[in-house]
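Because discrete structure vocabularies remain unfamiliar, we first show an illustrative case, written as a sequence plus integers encoding its fold.
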Amino acid sequence: MATPSDDGTSGSPDALKALVEVELRYLQRSRERVVSRLDGLEEHAVRRPVTPTGTNLLGLVKHLALGELSYFDQCVGRPSGVEVPFEDDASYDDDLDMYALPGESRAWVLDLYRRAAAHTDATVRELGPGAPATVPWWREEVRQTTVGYLLTHVLHETAQHAGHADVLRELADGAAGPDHDERDAAGWAAHVARVQAAADGWTSPTAADTM
């Protein structure tokens, strides 16, 4: 299992540089996927809570932007120069990073994410994966880490939220992923019926079945 020191920094310089570029490329793909889920939706639709815990599309973008700025600014001692709406723990405790306030436009949030991404990429390339980093809000025994580990951490989180964004968009207006056009509406209805039937047909295994 990966730990905050498992950043691959034992390889040759060329191999490490290549690995960094691969991770940055996949990170950018995930960023673009998250942002694309807002395309074509009106302002209220990208802001409104879609799940019982309040998850919303524009909030995911804001959360990811502030996350990158936190990790690759204060945690590595490389100021971004990007003005953020808050930095205090109380605001994060209130989940203000998870939704856009009325005065925060979609354009502002997207620009914040663009600038955060540019700072992340430049920081990783300039400092390298083996550079030290400190994450004050992590547990004491793991808060001393490296730029390489932070990059992998952010890549994982962004990819995870890209999946969340896909689901939120489908719930918002039915728009799904690239495989959506493989079936028409009737085909998808039939598919859902098959999945429902399979779920309804499940029975708890007997003791004999598990032996």
